[in-house]
Write a structure and sequence with these properties.
heterodimer; A: about 220 residues; mainly alpha; MetI-like fold; 8 helices; globular; B: about 230 residues; elongated; disordered C terminus
Chain lengths: ~220, ~230
């Protein structure tokens, strides 16, 4: 099997186009995951027993089932009952919901790690609830959880390739389409692997740096 | 063919889903054994004092941790036959999952062994034990409990990841479900059934992990904290 170097000229621009979609999907998903995860962590703290049990159950169910099946449910089943969404929106939502379960645990631990004295300080300063969270607690939580959120962003980036299965033409989808048409599986997939590695490795180095800086 | 009642329909699809679930478990078990073997060898090799021993293992771990498991599965499935290596789909899937999770397990093993107090090595030397003996009888028994919470989490992740091999024609649970949808329609019932079966398979692991985490105390999120 020869590696056709000339085909790189064709494949590379295509893959970079696909990479753009991957990056958009991952970024969208991490925003959804952070928002939902933070919401869950905060609501859970002040929730009564029944609500807390309900939240924990949902989080466990989402965490214990495969993302692929969750995507199928959102993509093939949900439109039968609700509004149809574009594959991209479905994918971002699916990834975001899956990872909000993980992030809610990270945030919960992060909030617990804020010293108790900070809450007392907020009372002493007559901060109201919103002020306490926004100006005192969340800035400290962000510092504590940032490296872990970074690690989950890398997981989301890697898992975003699953969106190819619900017809999102991200970088893996692009590769599968191109290779299916031209039978250049070797060239296309090798380039895909190289690009995936370069981006993934840079991301993990960056998070590693963050981890050391904030430790 | 769509006019079965719900119970009738569930009875009809149960055998195919059951067979699929067994294949999922099979893939998970084979890959778990593979990942543990690869992970232990790699994790220990990375503790070698010689850089030329560490280098290939570092390269392997970084390569597999920086790319997507699905991309790895497709790569092995489409590219290996082109360079003359022919494996059947099941073996390909199990091999990739073993290599993928082996990379993560190796990090768990490495950091757990490093978390054992170096004084324990010196104690072993003082007792006139050999290196291998110290490792087997002093270090490993202390490192192993440190690994458990993270290994438990990866076991759950592995079970979920077996769904990916559905995309390379292995008729495990997810693929069995997709085939049934092709044949009968009724995606709601079928995919919810698949979802529920995955959940039921995961629950024992979830309970086990909960138990391990409570006993380990403070070790969580698949990360091993250094003592």
């Amino acid at each position: 099997m020869n590696f056709d170097l000339n085909s790189i000229n064709v494949i590379l621009p295509l893959l970079l186009q696909g990479l753009k979609v991957t990056v958009i999907a991952s970024t969208g998903a991490v925003i959804v995951a952070i928002a939902l995860g933070l919401l869950i962590a905060i609501v859970r703290r002040s929730a009564g027993r029944a609500l807390r049990l309900a939240i924990d159950t949902v989080v466990t169910v989402v965490r214990s089932t495969p993302l692929l099946v969750q995507l199928y449910l959102l993509f093939y089943v949900l439109p039968l009952y609700g509004p149809a969404m574009s594959p991209m929106t479905t994918g971002i939502l699916g990834l975001g919901i899956h990872y909000c379960a993980y992030l809610s645990e990270v945030f919960r631990a992060g909030i617990d790690a804020v010293p108790k004295g900070q809450w007392e300080a907020a009372i002493a300063l007559q901060f109201n609830r919103l002020q306490t969270w926004r100006r005192l607690i969340i800035p400290q939580v962000v510092r504590i959880v940032l490296p872990q959120v970074g690690n989950y962003f890398i997981s989301i980036y890697k898992h975003s390739s699953l969106l190819a299965t619900i017809t999102v033409v991200e970088i893996l989808g692009t590769t599968l389409n191109y290779a299916g048409e031209t039978f250049r599986y070797f060239e296309a997939f090798t380039l895909l692997g190289i690009i995936y590695f370069i981006v993934g490795f840079s991301l993990s180095r960056t998070v590693g740096y963050l981890e050391r800086r904030l430790a | 063919m769509n006019d079965y009642s719900l119970t009738e329909f569930l009875m009809r699809i149960a055998p195919a889903l059951g067979r699929g679930a067994l294949v999922s478990i099979e893939v998970a078990l084979v890959s778990a054994v593979g990942a543990l073997l690869i992970g232990f060898v790699t994790g220990l090799a990375r503790l070698s004092p010689h850089w030329y021993v560490r280098l290939p293992f570092v390269a392997y771990v970084e390569l597999f941790r920086s790319t997507s498991s699905l991309v790895q599965i497709f790569y092995f499935f489409y590219v290996l036959p082109l360079v003359g290596i022919r494996l059947d789909a099941f073996l390909t899937g199990a091999l990739v999952l073993s290599l993928n999770f082996g990379a993560y397990v190796s990090e768990v093993v490495r950091s757990a062994v490093q978390s054992v107090n170096p004084g324990q090595w010196q104690a072993g030397v003082a007792l006139n034990m050999e290196r291998a003996q110290i490792f087997r009888r002093i270090i490993l028994p202390q490192a192993f409990p440190v690994m458990l919470p993270a290994l438990g989490n990866y076991a759950l992740e592995l079970l979920k990841a077996t769904s990916l091999v559905s995309l390379i024609t292995i008729t495990e649970l997810t693929f069995a479900g997709s085939q049934l949808v092709q044949f009968y329609g009724r995606p709601t019932t079928i995919y919810l059934a698949v979802f529920t079966i995955y959940l039921v398979m995961a629950l024992p692991l979830v309970a086990l992990n909960h138990h391990i985490e409570r006993r380990a105390g403070g070790v969580w999120q698949g990360k091993v904290r250094h003592k």
